[in-house]
Task: inverse folding
């Protein structure tokens, strides 16, 4: 009985998550308001980062919105979440902006940008990532840069 209840609960939770994803993805695709696009894009990243295919099905504009957030948003945690999402999506258009984000004032943005470059296997970022391993004042950013270099190396 307990196992069956647990299995059913898991199925229902996954179905509810998929339904929520579909609603938010629809809002994202139809939104004209940049603030609404931002909220929907970050919700998708937060809830679907472990499922790149589901994240990508929000549409090609998701990369553009995440790039805009990462490059221009004043909120450092949102820039961090955008960098994470760009790494999950794996679009090579994100490489140059992610390299620029490794210079962000906020350490978590630098760390997520470095990790995303590793996920993208961005060989052109190796020099910058080595600089981060040697020179970044933040231990987490150094560690993510090291992890990124290991991913790129294969």
Result:
């Amino acid at each position: 009985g307990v196992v069956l209840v647990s299995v059913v609960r898991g199925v229902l939770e996954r179905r509810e998550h998929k339904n929520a994803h579909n609603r938010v993805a629809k809002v994202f695709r139809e939104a004209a308001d940049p603030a609404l696009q931002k909220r929907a894009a970050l919700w998708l990243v937060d809830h679907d980062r472990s499922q790149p295919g589901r994240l990508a099905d929000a549409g090609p504009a998701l990369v553009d919105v995440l790039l805009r957030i990462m490059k221009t948003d004043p909120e450092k945690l949102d820039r961090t979440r955008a960098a994470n999402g760009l790494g999950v999506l794996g679009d090579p258009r994100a490489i140059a902006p992610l390299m620029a984000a490794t210079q962000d004032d906020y350490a978590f943005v630098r760390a997520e940008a470095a990790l995303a470059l590793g996920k993208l296997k961005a060989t052109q970022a190796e020099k910058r990532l080595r600089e981060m391993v040697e020179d970044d004042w933040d231990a987490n950013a150094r560690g993510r840069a090291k992890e990124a270099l290991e991913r790129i190396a294969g």
The chain has a mean pLDDT of 93. The two ends are 46 Å apart (CA to CA).
